[in-house]
Fold each of these.
Amino acid sequence: MNDMTVGAPERANFSDMKEGTQEDWEIIGGCFREFAKGHPDRILEHLKLLGGDFGGFKVDRLTHCLQTATLAHRDSKDEEYVVCALLHDIGDTLGTFNHADIAAAIVEPFVSEENHWMVKHHAIFQGYYFFHHLGMDRNLREQYRDHPYYERTLEFVSKYDSPAFNPDGETLPLEFFEPMVRRVMAKPKRSLYKAVSE
């Protein structure tokens, strides 16, 4: 059944990708670019889902993310780093068992290799503070001791992530960070589809 109607957005004609034409992919590429413009909005909306989710902590997950970003910002970290701090736990809702991987995948196209690595591995590094209470090896991070981004990730966890569960801690509002998210995510640096976004 074809649901093409007058005034509806143009759509490709194929039902199997193997049949796609240049014209089809120009239509799809145009839709992709238009949809990509709303990417920061979708990220910010998803981050808001962490509000009210305490998970047993003293502050909810959104407050934790905001405090982590606030601490990094107050310590004069650059905008990209602050956005990574803000989004480092955005994967909590969909990636219960691998939240850091989800967050890392979201920021990867827009950030440096070192910031991506930091976000991807922060869960292992923060485990030093509590894994032993759960019957796990708190020293898992030591496998990365010789990695060039070990110290960067250690600093992130110890200075910004770990102390950001304070009900009385400074917590800048999400609106403060929104322009940073939009700037950092305005254009991908590394992506399979980078050329399509230009």
Amino acid sequence: MIAIPAIDLREGACVQLVGGSYADERVRVKDPLDALKRWRSFGFKTFHVVDLDAALGKGSNEGPIGKLLTHEPGLTFSVGGGVRSTAKAEAVLALGASYVVVGTKAIEDPAWLREVAERFPGRVVVAADVKGREVVTRGWTAGSAQDIGDVLKTLEPLPLGGLLVTAVHKEGQMEGVDLPLMEEVARSSRHPLFASGGVTTVEDLRALGRVGTFGAVIGMALYTGKLDATDVAREFA
């Protein structure tokens, strides 16, 4: 189980939002490269980058993403946010991302997802953002009326690089993870599970590891110091 610092981009800065609310921004680092350098100094090697503006169709942070991905060779990046075409997926991978993360379009257009997954086998991660049990889309602003269990069945045969499951109802709250949800996903899918939402303590990380999670994306708890980066990196980097 590896811990993966989140670098969420908005208006060129690195931010952290509470509960997925764009109106409730808790943390802002003006230069995302400063955030990357900080987490690298603790020993983290894998990072999750999200273009929040692109996810909402309000712009692009392609410049800052390019700087992050070319800063140091040998690091692993998953990059997502507003990837809704095969050309955009290809462009993200061409920038240097190890994985491209697709969410809204993947959930709403299964035929497109199959096409892009088969074109880039093992390099497409599907983001399933879950509120309760419903998968939500469009930057967490729209419901899909699909249960996470049903979505997992449709994803099972595809040559994916993994699943990124975010418990939106836990995101940014620093109140712990939705362990039953993550255990269900880990048990019912052959794809590596990247868990996100609510990671607050080292014990949260250990618990995720015990139920079969491959990696955990951490945001708010790291940025606010609630989680000690030294302790996390020692055990999970």
